[in-house]
Amino acid sequence: MTVYKPTSSRSFFLELVLDILVFTVCALICLQVFAQAHIESSRSAAQSQLGIEAERVAELFKASNGDAKLLAALLGGESDGDTLAWYYNRDLEPVEREEAFYTLTCKIDGLHTVKVARITLTEGAQKLMEFEVSSYRLSGGGGS
By Cβ atoms counted within 10 A, which residue in 14, 52, 61, 118 is the most buried? Predict the structure, then answer.
C-alpha cells in the first residue's frame, strides 16, 4: 500500500492560489467602490452647476422685475404662460423635453407689484432643489 504524503510544494502552491483569489476579490470590491464614487462625484458636480444656473435664473427674474416675457427673452427655454422650463441631458447640454435628464422650471405667480418665482430643479421625477424668490416693483416710477 502506497501512502502519498503532501509535499511542501503542493501546500505552497495551494496557499499561493488562495492568496491570489483573496486579493482578486478585494481588488474587485475596491474597483466597484471607486467606480461608484466617480459616478456620485460626476452627479454632484452636475447638480452644483445646475444650482448655479438656478441662481442665475433667480437673479435675472429680480432684474427683469418679474416679467416672464422678458425673462424668456433673456434666457430662452420653453415658455407656457408664466412658467418657463429648461431641459438638460446628463452632460448639462440643453436638449428637448423628451431627451431631458434634468429639468429647471420657473413658475411666476403674483399680483401687480409683488411677483414670486418658484424655481425647481428636478432629476426625472425626483425634486433636487426648490426655492422661491420675490420681485417688488414700485408703481409710478418713484424711488424708495
Answer: 61
* Other beta carbons less than 10 A from residue 107's beta carbon: 17
Residues 6+ away with beta carbon under 8 Å from 2: none
Please check whether residue 104 is in contact with residue 85, taking contact to mean a CB–CB distance below 8 angstroms: yes
Cβ(136)–Cβ(114) under 8 Å? Answer: yes
Q: Quote the cell numbers at residue 120.
A: 425647481
Could you tell me the residue ranges of all domains in the chain? 8-141
pLDDT along the chain (144 residues), means of 10: 70 91 96 94 89 90 82 81 87 89 89 84 89 76 44
C-alpha distances (whole Å) from 28 to each of 14, 25, 31, 96 are 21, 5, 5, 39
